[in-house]
Design goal:
Layout: E1 2-11, E2 16-21, E3 35-39, E4 42-46, E5 48-54, E6 58-63, H1 69-75, E7 79-82, H2 88-91, E8 98-101, E9 104-115, E10 118-125, E11 128-134, E12 139-143, E13 148-151
Parallel strand pairs: 8-13
Antiparallel strand pairs: 1-2, 1-7, 2-6, 3-4, 3-7, 5-6, 8-9, 9-10, 10-11, 12-13
Length: 161
């Protein structure tokens, strides 16, 4: 599953929702296939009944079984998912790799999590576990042979020693 949008707020009283699209164009969303919303830890399928563009990165959607304002309000803050692989940057698993900030050793990557709009690394450092965003602009070097990842992190991102 991969996230395509976040439900920002309800729209109207007929169950409409305003969604913020991630890196997908509205015309690339297949309305004949279900979208999923994770509810109580389980992906629940919905079909898109209507989808109308609002600006470059937003849309108004109506989903099956979301019929009124109360139904729509319960979904605010949740993510719309579709079946399929994550983006190529997110497919690489850096768990167990050694992370550097330039020449400075940061620690070992314990886990990875796709936070909406950004992949994050959970890194074990001498100060404990820290969450570090992984963005292509921060990557200086990736070496699969030595399992090392070198980033150029902005100042103040890591906890002070």
């Amino acid at each position: 599953m991969r996230g395509i949008a976040k439900i920002l707020k309800s729209h109207g009283t007929d169950g409409g929702i305003l969604i913020g699209l991630y890196d997908i164009d509205i015309q690339d969303i297949d309305t004949t296939e279900p979208v999923f919303i994770e509810i109580d830890g389980l992906p629940v399928p919905f079909f898109i009944e209507s989808l109308q563009q609002r600006g470059n990165t937003r849309a108004i959607a109506h989903l099956t079984d979301v019929r009124d304002l109360r139904d729509a309000e319960e979904l605010v803050g949740l993510e719309l998912l579709i079946e399929g692989d994550e983006d190529d940057e997110e497919e690489e698993d850096f768990t167990g790799w050694t992370l550097y900030d330039g020449d400075r050793l940061i620690g070992t990557v314990n886990d990875m999590a796709p936070i909406p709009g950004n992949l994050c690394l959970y890194v074990q450092t001498p100060r404990g576990e820290e969450m570090i965003p992984l963005h292509e602009d921060l990557v200086r070097d990736v070496d699969p042979d030595t399992r090392t990842l070198v980033l150029d992190l902005p100042e103040g991102l890591l906890a002070e020693e």
